[in-house]
Structures are given as C-alpha cells and as structure tokens.
Amino acid sequence: MNTLILTGELWTYLADLNEQAQERLDTIMEQMKATEGVTEELKRTSQMEWVQRCNNIRNRAEEIVLHEMIYS
After folding, report:
1. Dihedral pair phi/psi, residue 65, rounded to 5°
2. What Pfam families does the record point to (predicted)?
C-alpha cells in the first residue's frame, strides 16, 4: 500500500477496485433477482414486496462483494 501512495497510484487503484466491485454487485443482484423471481411483474403487482425483496438482495450481494473483493 505504501508503494501505491508513494507512486501516486493509490487513487487509480481505488477507482479501479470500486468499478470492479460495482460491476460485480450489479451482476450478483441480477442473478439473485432472476433466481428469486423478483421481476417487473412483481414490481407492478406488489410494489412494497418488490422493494423489500430488492433491498434484501442488495444487502446480501454487498456482503458477498465485500468478502470476495475487500476483506480477502
């Protein structure tokens, strides 16, 4: 990490990591939505349930990304 700071590459590294994490998060969320049946039809017929399930999926997906990319 000190090398990144000294060479001025820390912000580039962090920006790249952030982009990769966001892409991974989006992918995981889409996969979970498909698997769990969280569809536009559900959004149309039961908006509160759709929001709750999307929030739940987002929370679980964020935990996965944190463990895969940040904590490891």
Report:
1. -65, -40
2. TnpV (PF14198)
- Three-state DSSP string of 5-58: HHHCCHHHHHHHHHHHHHHHHHHHHHHHHHHHCCCHHHHHHCHHHHHHHHHHHH
Q: Please report where in the chains the tokens 């498909």 appear, as a residue.
A: 34
Question: Residues 68, 24: contact at Cβ < 8 Å?
Answer: yes
Sign of torsion over alpha carbons 12, 62, 44, 39: positive
User: 47 Cβ partners below 8 Å, 6+ apart?
Assistant: none
Per-residue pLDDT tens over the stretch 27-56: 999 999 999 999 999 999 999 999 999 999
Work out the burial of residue 5: count CB atoms within 10 Å of its CB; fewer than 13 is exposed, 13-18 middle, 19 or more buried: exposed
Q: How far apart are CA 61 and CA 54, in angstroms?
A: 10
